[in-house]
Predict the structure.
Amino acid sequence: MKDEQFTPIAERYMDAVFRLALSYTRSAADAEDVTQTALLALYRTDTRFESEVHAKNWLMCVTVNECRKLFRSPWRKTEDIADYAESLALPEPEQRELLETVMALPVKYRTVLYLYYYEQYSTAEIAAILSIPAATARTRLARGREKLKTLLTEEELL
Amino acid sequence: MTERELFQKTFSHIHAPSDTVTEVLNMANKTKSTKKFSKTSRTLLIAAVCAALLIGGALAVTTLRSDAGLLARLRLTDADVAALETASVSALSEPVASDMHGGITVSVARAAADGNAAFIALQVEGLELPEGYVPAAAGLLISADGEELGNYGWNFDNGLRWNGEQVVYDDGTAALLDGDSFVARYDRGDGSLELDIDLFPDGSHSQSLVGQEIELSLNELGLIDGAQSGTELEQTEAGPWVLRWTLEGAGESLFYTLNEPLNDWVTLSELTLSPMSVKLIYNGDGKDGETLELLPELVGLQKADGSVLNILGGGILGYEEDNVTYTVEESISSIIDPQEITALIFCDGIDGTETIVTLNN
């Protein structure tokens, strides 16, 4: 991909890639690495994108695959998400509570929740991005919402 | 406030570092322009050395992945071809198809496939490579029995190999270092270049290609100027070079039912050993959470003589949530006789400890 083609797409979607990677890895440092790797893959791909949405969906798939690779590495270090939440200086306490609560969920729930609530993907689209059956995506979303709601209600955020 | 509103308000504060795109462009242009291993590749090599040191001793293995060229390590010797024929796996040792445009001839130099994996090496003759330039290809389309494949990866073989201890050239001599990069050798010794293609670099395929007619179309060949920061192909020659041939064979494999615990929550249920790849089926114990990502990783195959074959990498092909079953396929660094493999070496996904599963042939 040429620089002039790459740059606008990368700038537009790097935050989405980073947020998905953060949801998946629960580590800002890992998310930064994954974002760079995913964007580098975009730069090098020969895929012909029909639209920017197509490019974004492709990037999200690559991001998930890179996160999975990272999880399989024996050298991966864990990071306290509370420190990262602190660094964001979120304006309202419930935002920090939400972030920490979501990040405390198992990865299979928090990634689906992020893709559904923030990126507003359908469960069919989430299934395609995560390479899982649509029924599994629906189940994870339902269970994730249930777990999140329980935890947030306990925190009296909802 | 609804859950969605709270998500939107919260996650909108999360941003990638502002210099991300610049960093990626620097990485991309450095890789394209140096005609050597990039820093990333070098890191992988160092990681591979660390892996060898961590696992240690006679069972030392590495996890060096695609940077040295997947097919480069599948360079077929006469013995390999004989082994492949014995195993009824598709293999070529002589070019079977070629096409010429603008004085550049592209031929299928080697190809090998089993039930799980497929690699192709194209010989490119007539593409002049001036000092400071890197060969490049664009517009590659491959179909099998008329169905277009996707997601394949390709790169020109840069002549650099990892021999388990250090980076070497084809002749076994230590690779030359220029600063922190290894100096590449694209010329195969007779003026030709080699374009290596891994048809399923992430294990994304669902069926064997053995016995299918392959049609490969390569639209553009050219050069990238190492002195420029861009990645524009220069001095290009337009094709398409179109090559057609059939991958013959049946791709026989060895199948095992193992039910071997790898740690306190996952069991290796089934194993299929093929000449170029391995398929594993794991079964969890229903543990909730991140089991998919924390599966023990297959890092080596041990032969009866104690030597260990590396795993090039693969992907998770399937996951059944109801019974927590995972299917994973991996490519092997060389062609094997499945009967020769006596043990599998796993690295734990959490603490890196090693587990060896012995096979009873």
